[in-house]
Each structure stands twice: as C-alpha cells, then as structure tokens.
Amino acid sequence: MAELAETYQKLYSRYGPQSWWPTSYGLRPWQWEVCVGAVLTQNTGWRNVERALANLAGARCLTAVDVLKIPASGLQALVRPAGYFRQKAQRLKSLAELVLAFGSVGSFLRHVTRERLLAVHGIGPETADCILLYAAGRPEFVVDAYTRRAFSRLGLLTGNESYGQIRQMFEAELPRDARLFNEYHALIVRLGKELCRKLPNCIGCPLRNSCMYGREVG
After folding, report:
1. Which of 16, 43, 61, 83 could disulfide-link 66, Cβ–Cβ 3.0 to 4.6 Å?
2. How far is residue 7's CA from residue 107's CA, in Å, rounded to a whole number?
3. What is the pLDDT of residues 119-152, one digit of tens each?
4. For the stretch 56-89, what's the b/e string if a residue is b when 16 or more beta carbons lie within 10 angstroms of its beta carbon?
5. CA nearest neighbour of 49 among 7, 84, 91
6. Is this structure's pTM higher than 0.90?
7. What structural domains and CATH numbers belong to the chain?
8. Which letter does DSSP use for residue 176 in this model?
C-alpha cells in the first residue's frame, strides 16, 4: 500500500521531525516518565497529563519505587488532573510492580513482552505499544483516535477495523523501524490536533489532494 509511505512523506515534508515522546518533568529514568505518561494519557488530553506529571514531580514521586511507596490516596490526588484518577493510580502501581519485578526500568524495557504488558489490568494495546515504541524503542506501531479519523477520511480505512487490524496494516506495509514508527505516529497526532479534527480544517492540509473527505468539502 504505497499510500502509507506517501502519506508519511507528505506529513514529514510539512511538519518535519517531531522528536517524540515529550519528557521534561524529571521522572527517573526518562523512560519511566514515558511509561507514566502513556498510562495517564488514556481518555484525556496531554495538557491534563502535564498537570499530573508536574504534581508527581513536585511531590518527588519520581521513580517506580516512589509510586509503590506512596499511599494509594496520595497517588490518586497527584494524578487527579488526568481524570479517572483512582483507576490510573492503581494502573501505575501495577505497572511499577511489573517494572520492579524485572529489577530495573532498563531490564524491564529490554525483556518485557507485549503480552505481559497487556496482562496488566488497565493496560490496553495503545498504552502497551506507546511504552514499547517510545520507552523501549521497539518497532510497534501505535494506533489512536487520530489515526482512525485521518485514515478513514483518506479512504484507507472503513472505520470498522479493530486496533489489531490497523496496526497490522501499518506494520505490514512499512519498514519495521522504530524511528519511522515514532515519527509517523507523532506526525499523525500533529495533523489531528491542528487540522484533521472532529470538525476538520481542510484548507492547507498537506493530505488534501489525496483525501476523499478533503476533496468532497471543496
């Protein structure tokens, strides 16, 4: 499916490298901050995640060990800005337990399997793939709502595909390269936030000429 490679080139030509995943709050190591962010971003916007990360940093809850030591109520209060704070606090504790079962964040990222991550209550495919791609540097393509929306409008998805089917489509048609997958997902998010919204702004979109939706709206 040459369209996937062509779409990437158009997005990259417009926006350039995105240098994802954003980490700036001092959680240690930085890969742990990626893991925490991947859990916190479920069903909320990144600004809310940033507020929760700032709370964790301010409380010196910086490591997986810190997450396990802090009482559940205290962790819930810190991550409250990200919504679903009780569930997310428990997910962070469960993830911290898994990380430390491997001995360290580094060992966890080297050896954990996707299946083991998915076995953690509350960690679904998107969260697992974010951890594997952005923290572990593995070529696992991340599918999110922006991907579904943009590629349905492009006519490359029907809108009824499962997460796994969309993931397989990208991974089968693109080189299995973590840096490529990293940039591609980040570029899709950039497009979705700026132009391909629920009410899209098709004017100036780098994909408009190849987009079924963009051509229809004129």
Report:
1. 61
2. 35
3. 999 999 999 999 999 999 999 999 999 999 999 9
4. bbeeebbbbebbeebeeeebbebbbbbbebebbb
5. 84
6. yes
7. 2-18+142-217 (1.10.1670.10), 30-135 (1.10.340.30)
8. -
